[in-house]
Amino acid sequence: MESIVAALALLIVGYTVGSVRIINQGTEALVERLGKFHRKLGPGLNFVVPFLDTIVLEESTRERVLDIEKQKAITGDNVSADVDAVVYWRILQLERTFYAVENIEEALESLVTTTLRSEIGRMSLAQTFSSRNEINQALLHQLDEATATWGVKVTRVEVQSIEPAPDVLRAMELERAAESKKKAAISEAQGKKQAAIEEAEGAVQSMKMIADALKSQPNSREIMKYLVAQRYVDASYRLGDSPNSKIVFMDPKALTEALSELIDPNAPPPSQHPLNPPREG
To answer: What element of type H or E holds 222?
Structure first.
């Protein structure tokens, strides 16, 4: 009788121990009964029926990181580049993840690679460098829709690097250098043009001031001739001193007439002055 009681006690203890399952926090387990999905075990103390229930999977539901190795991609302007990314994801429905797809990480990696190549192919190489955030958002949206039936949630996608081929990088550096030189030359030409305009405006203003000052002088015409002659001599000296000097012929008479009109707009030109009557043929 004692042996029977001991056997029953051992059987009860063994059954109790065999039916107890402890699931850690952040982890879930799937139970099949006679080969069919029965229920899901959450964190804490759980009981199953020995010999009938089988725990087929115990998996973490915490967020994970999937590192996608560098992949070859072709941009919209037919430039080859190596692209890699990192994906953050977590399991929401463990039973769907286990029964809907064979290997969830391999399926995610293949899906991310295909989607990344497709998104890179929509843009030019220059756009991929300046639109990194747009690429991340587009990948996240497409992956979230594609993985909905797998019971997983893609929380974030980050494109880590986009590296063109070495010859493409050299060509881009040469292009940037040429563009910088072009901008510098344009800026220098604009600066010289502005300086010349300001200098000319200053000269005109100076001549107006001189003309206004000479209007009250009785011998203003002789003074103006002297000033014009002095300017002419100075300009000729500077041209002659220049390494790329040229011979310039100027008409002092024309300059004198223009400056005389500046001094007195109502005065007749020198060719019609009473002291200089026009010559007859």
So the answer is: helix 220-241
